[in-house]
Design brief:
Radius of gyration: 25 Å
Number of helices: 15
Largest sheet: 7 strands, mixed
CATH architecture of the largest domain: 3-Layer(bba) Sandwich
Shape: elongated
Helix content: 25-40%
Structural class: alpha+beta
CATH topology of the largest domain: FAD/NAD(P)-binding domain
CATH superfamily of the largest domain: FAD/NAD(P)-binding domain
Length: 421
Amino acid sequence: MMNPKYDVIIVGAGAAGLWAAATAAKRGQRVLLIEKNKKLGVKILMSGGTRCNITHNASWRGVADAFGKPQGRFLKYALATLTPEAVVDTFHQLGVGTKVEETGKIFPQSDRAIDVRDALVTRARQAGVQIMPGTSVTGIAPTQDHFVVSCTEQTFFCHALVLTCGGQSYPGCGTTGDGYAWLKELGHSVVAPRPALTPLKCRDEWVHRLSGVTIPDVGLSVQLQNGKSQLVRSDRSCFRGSFLFTHRGCSGPAALNISRLVTDPANNLPKKLICDWLPDLSEDKLRNDLTSTAVRSSGRQLFNELCHVLPKRLAQELCDLAGIPGDQSLAELGKKRLNRIVQQSKRCPVDISGTLGFAKAEVTAGGVELGEVDPQTMESRLVPRLYLAGEILDVDGPIGGYNFQAAFSTGFVAGNAIASG
């Protein structure tokens, strides 16, 4: 019996794979989509607390900027080709209404990730994509005019191959880095994968005591413990957003976004998180506000004043860290103690012991070296007719729908390029 031959085989039925498959099939390609999980789009179903943050309410340039210069430059063509507006329009056409939250995140109106996944699967099937779930690919091999895709029980042949099998985040979803090994065998370079958008672990007991406390807006940066108290500098080195204390350390958007710096091997030194609990106030403004209050109301206590702008439990811990009794009157605070409480409020150090790793990471930083992929087609520059899209590439954006947008856009470009070739 002859093994079936396809125009395109796509390995990985996540966001990038489903979009690439439908795009190619709509343009007349015979497409096979292989997924090792029995369920399709498992990470879609888990994302955004099972709500699925589809994309961000920004222009394509705004999305590119969020990835930083090297990654944003690479993604520029894909994002301009399939914009956030186009993604939202597509879901509307598929019957999935959307809503924009205050943070700019775009979710399905239903708050159900399954509606997003089902719409993408239905779209692919209606376009004629053959989907094969519960099938593990064991190897890929290019020949002169086709690819051989070996699976556990069958072998397939195709003219073009698309790898959208993701990185290593949430390995329980099946994203265990299989594609990296195949690509290395084909001569590709892989930037060492590391967890990103993952919660942080902290050593400080006072942090653990605050478990469950949320602060809506905190500014974070990372400081290297190299004897110079040097802040990590890059185009994505400072983040603001919601912050959550946990029994292990900290989470929330700001902490998740900064985690890529914590796991960066280029800064392989012990690190501290520098927390600005009042990012809308400069140090001088905070100092002046406390001084002015002391003049107006000499009996006002430090703790009570901090409670106007910070959660009570955090305000108490900051007083303790500064070595100042909470019932200290502002009028008797003195310059040194005033400076200590300002420092704890604006440059509070938190000792980082690590992260919760790939098991809790929403995305993978690292992946296939971007210089080895054509950004206008997503075709490998090393292996003809091999295409790469989504998280397998060395792209990782902040929380907020940016990573799904990059997956949809790169999948779209790959599917179109194959059909045009």
